[in-house]
Amino acid sequence: MLFDADAMDDVSAAYDRYADFESFRRTVARTPRTEVYEVGPGDRLDALLAARRRARQA
């Protein structure tokens, strides 16, 4: 979702999609002999997390 240009139109939905992915990534990472890497634009992740924090404070 971090590569989707329209993902940030709805911060709540974008965060939910990211949280779902992170849950999946952690599940896969617990598989023996498996390494999981998250690849994505760090600036978009930072923007998403900052927007989520602002939304929760409002």
What can you tell me about this protein's structure?
By secondary structure, the protein is mainly alpha-helical. It has one domain. The chain has two helices and no strands. It has helices at residues 11-29, 42-57. The radius of gyration is 13 Å and the shape is elongated. The two termini are 24 Å apart. The model has no long low-confidence stretch (mean pLDDT 88).
List keywords for this structure.
0% strand, 60% helix, 58 residues, single chain, 2 helices, mainly alpha
Short précis:
60% of the residues lie in helices and 0% in strands.
Question: Layout of SSEs?
Answer:
Layout: H1 11-29, H2 42-57
Individual helix count: 2
Low-confidence stretches: none
Please write the string of helix (H) and strand (E) elements. Answer: HH
**Overall spatial form:** elongated
Major sheet details: none
Beta-strand proportion: under 5%
Q: Which structural class is indicated by helix and strand composition?
A: mainly alpha
